[in-house]
Amino acid sequence: MPNVVTHNLNVLGSVATSSLTAWRGCLVVQQAVQPEKPILLYDIEACPFCRRVREALTALNLDVEIRPCPKGGRRFRGEAEALGGKQQFPLLVDQNTDTVMYESAAIVDYLFSQYAGRPVPRYYRARSYQPVLGSAASAASGLRGMRARQGRVPEQALELWSFEGSPFSRLVREKLCELEIPYTLHNLGKEHWSEVGPARQRIKPGPYTPIPGGKRDAFFQQHRRVQVPYLEDPNTGQGLFESARILDYLEQQYAV
């Protein structure tokens, strides 16, 4: 297992990142219908502009295929450049509408318009001060998820259940990005105020009951709890809760 002290310090840094970004990407604003074909996001986890797009995806509870493109990475940067014409991130590719887009503000506007039929909510609109706070938020997490590390390539993409504002999930996404491991990001945002708080200490007392018919309910029916991060690796058949366990698994299985 990773060093406990180091892991806890990283968690505190991740909490600071979520705080500096006003905890956007925690609550579902409007449940969007998942499109037939997957949405692709070429992404750098520590990039503040990429973070804004992931916040919007959580707000819409949309799943997305992540293609990590950390600095120094070689697996997906060339592919991204071939699709969009340059190495700039975030890059969104929506196969459902034949859309290829740069610029976080334009992507956020597109997602809310295309998948919620509404303007961008005030909470998610671009502000002049956001680049500064976003950079500070990345610094608070030690710029993890910014630069590539040498790792093994999985035959199949991994699957991660997460939501953007979760400090524990961020630690796992950082590692996946550094190792350039592609994954399906299943957004599992909080669907009601009563779900606010850690998995074992929510605001509403008593047994946890998710909203019937929602994504959290489907997850609950399968696992009998709703807790993120949760990682599934189809290459090994592993399914793991707890960020420390997942990080240790990724290091052992994919780091070189």
Structure explained in plain terms:
The protein is of the alpha+beta class and 256 residues long. Helices cover 37% and strands 14% of the residues. The protein has helices at residues 4-20, 48-59, 77-84, 104-116, 130-140, 167-178, 215-223, 243-254; strands at residues 39-43, 64-68, 91-94, 99-101, 158-162, 183-187, 230-233, 238-241. The chain has an 8-stranded mixed β-sheet, sandwiched between helices. The longest helix has 17 residues, at 4-20.
Quick rundown:
This protein is α+β, with helices and mostly antiparallel strands and 256 residues long. Helices cover 37% and strands 14% of the residues.
Global outline: globular
Radius of gyration using CA atoms only:
17 Å
Helix content: 25-40%
Sheet of most strands = 8 strands, mixed
How far apart lie the N and C ends? 17 Å
Number of beta-strand segments: 8
**Tally of helical runs:** 8
| Percentage of residues in strands | 5-15%
Low-confidence stretches: none
Main sheet strand line-up = 4-3-1-2-6-5-7-8
Topology pattern, helix = H, strand = E: HEHEHEEHHEHEHEEH
The average pLDDT score comes to 95
Q: Which structural class best describes the helix and strand composition?
A: alpha+beta
